[in-house]
Write a structure and sequence with these properties.
Order of helices and strands: HHHEHEHEHEHEHHHEHEEHEEH
Strand content: 15-25%
Distance between the termini: 30 Å
Low-confidence stretches: none
Structural class: alpha/beta
Number of strands: 10
Mean pLDDT: 95
Largest sheet: 5 strands, parallel
Bound molecules: 6-O-phosphono-alpha-D-glucopyranose
Length: 369
């Protein structure tokens, strides 16, 4: 096993460091070399088929579900198609309104999660077109689905998903751009710009992984707190959900993610002196509102770690520590902003002496209901 870990102490940290490669490989062959757009040669649908999609239903569990939430923002904004996202264990039991004009996308790293597989079968029974986004070639979900887009993350061993998530986000972004260019909601110039920004991502992920010392220090300093809150708006909220799950899964710290605007409807009552709050502020359209939320928690003496875009000097004035991510298109920021949160969870778990790769009570692939 040590040999498989390739010199890393845990699979999780190895997989975190594999993300530049995983992100790059997931894009390989799918980004047109001349910058003109996205190719999904594996999709057997015609442009007319894609154009006829009236609704998208995304179904997944755990981290893959969080990738689905990011996907909703991307597809709705870039392709202007309505998207609903369900956890697979709920989907089947709520009489979903699915028909032949619905594209059901199931996301699953392993391709074996039983609830996700059952939801896929249900969507097929209801007449929907189905698309799987999975990391495992020939998995049950890949076989059952009409069409498959593989994430090329390579084997993911650690129970806590990292590179599978970032590559799922890459596929979701490419799919949203692809649908947007077919539907005509994105101009060719905009598509070209987004493709260039996608192309820059692997180096930006690499850059984020070069200096992890500050994150290690925060984790050591706050790793023994019992409660941590993650707040954000818009796409930052979606990433907050994943950051909070990562921390819970492997460090056993109670963590909650809140849409920052919801704080005052309850959670603010829990913000007292010294409570760590991770505040994501990477989305320009809600930036000012996010700063007000940061001020709200600072006024209750929380310890705030801000996640901001490189070059943002404003945020530093209101938080205790800042982690910067490289600037990219706002729709692609989750692929970068999740990295410090993965590292924070990892180092918190290490600090607490937890079994990072095999957390208690959890399995890599859940094949029971
Ligand atoms: C388990 C794993 C998670 C994963 C979830 C969904 O709970 O511990 O890391 O996100 O299953 O797995 P899947 O293979 O369907 O993506």
């Amino acid at each position: 096993e040590a040999a498989e870990r390739g010199g890393y102490e845990h699979f999780m940290i190895k997989e975190i460091y594999e993300q530049p490669k995983a992100v790059r490989e997931t894009m390989t062959g799918r980004l047109a070399k001349d910058g003109s757009g996205i190719n999904f040669d594996e999709l057997k649908w015609t442009k007319e088929d894609i154009g006829a999609i009236k609704k998208v239903a995304v179904v997944a569990c755990g981290t893959a579900y969080h990738a689905g939430i990011v996907g909703k923002y991307l597809i709705e904004n870039l392709a202007r198609v309505p998207v609903e996202v369900d956890v697979a264990s709920e989907f089947r039991y709520r009489s979903p309104l699915i028909d032949d004009q619905t594209l059901t996308i199931v996301i699953s790293q392993s391709g074996e999660t039983l609830d996700t597989l059952a939801a896929l079968k249900e969507a097929k029974n209801l007449g929907a077109r189905t698309l799987a986004i999975t990391n495992v070639v020939g998995s049950s979900i890949a076989r059952e689905s009409d069409q498959v887009i593989y994430t090329w993350a390579g084997p993911e061993i650690a129970v806590a998903s990292t590179k599978a998530y970032t590559t799922q986000l890459v596929v979701m972004a490419m799919l949203a751009i692809y649908m947007g260019s077919i539907k005509g909601t994105l101009t060719p110039a905009k598509v070209g710009e987004l493709c260039q920004e996608l192309r820059d991502l692997p180096n930006q992920v690499h850059e984020l992984l070069e200096d992890v010392e500050p994150i290690k220090t925060f984790a050591q300093r706050y790793g023994f707190n019992e409660d941590v809150f993650f707040i954000g708006r818009s796409l930052d909220y979606a990433v907050a959900l994943e950051g909070s799950l990562k921390l819970k899964e492997i460090s056993y710290i109670h963590a909650e993610a809140y849409a920052a605007g919801e704080l005052k409807h309850g959670t603010l009552a829990l913000i007292i002196e010294g409570v760590p709050v991770i505040a994501l502020a990477t989305q320009s359209d809600v930036y000012e509102k996010m700063l007000s939320n940061i001020k709200e928690v600072k006024a209750r003496d929380a310890v705030v770690i801000g996640i901001g875009l490189k070059g943002d000097k404003e945020i530093e004035k209101y938080v205790d520590h800042t982690i910067y991510i490289p600037a990219t298109n706002k729709f692609l920021t989750p692929i970068l902003s999740v990295i410090p949160l993965q590292l924070l969870a990892y180092y918190a778990a290490v600090t607490r002496g937890c079994d990072v790769d095999k957390p208690r009570n959890l399995a890599k692939s859940v094949t029971v209901e």
